[in-house]
Design goal:
The protein has 309 residues and is mainly alpha-helical. It has helices spanning 2-27, 32-40, 46-55, 62-75, 88-123, 128-142, 145-159, 175-200, 204-211, 216-246, 248-253, 259-268, 272-300, 302-308.
Length: 309
Amino acid sequence: MTIIKELLRLLAVIFGVITLSFCLQLFTGTDPAEMIVRKQNIFATEAQIQAVREELKLDAPFQVRYLDYLGGGVRGDLGTAIMNRRPVAENIREVLPVTTMLILLSMLWVVLFSIVVAAAAVLRKDRAFDNVTRIICIIGICVPSFWLGLILLAVFAVRIPIFQVIADGSLKSFILPSIAMAFPIICISIRVLRASVLNELNSDYVTYARARGFTNGQIIYGEVLKNALPPAITLFAQYCAALFGTSALVESVFSIRGLGIYLMESCESMDVYGISGAILVCAVLFVLFNIAADLLSSAVCPAYGRKRI
């Protein structure tokens, strides 16, 4: 039943984003036909612009254009980009795998460090390790990813040439940008997971486990961590999905052409088809990641699934 609800929510979001994307094309004040013609001939006549407008069916009634756009979105046809006159879907298919690889590596760092450091901070609550971790996390949350990327690039690609300045598409070239993207999220995840674990430690089953003689480490790693994961999983999924649309700054620092750079270039070129297509993909990914987070949380912690029913 939960899966059916999530799928219905996904369909509703897709419908809403497609509608908003269509409205974006209408109310930006940009005439796609004029943009296309002016890129080829700045002295184009109104007759030439009107011919392109008729070719693209931009002079059709509102409801006709909306139904055509809605049908195209369902089929995966996101229109033709103004920048290079190629299908938007084809442009996105070229850049999406690069951003996906970068984000997956970033999320790997988040998973590895968040769980280990948060659990260690709970075991050493209010001691030196916990206090130092708290300070680092507060600073890390405030550090912009692109600034951290510049520092990493200057240190590990210029001063100590372990990595290349310009990414060559290899896995090694994604290490520094993925760390730059992951570090603020790691800091947030550690604080959230630590608070969730401490909240679980006040539960009755923890008191019972201590009465039976289990150590704090056995309790935390055996049961508490599993029950404390759902809030961190939800946060993890939301940040993971958001990175698809906000990765432009880090990608530009490391010369990586991904979805973020494509969205930024579309904005600079006033390419309404490219902008709406990229936004639609980011919105769908956001909902899919949230659905996956709910399902994973229910699998890891059955009590979470029962609360949502």
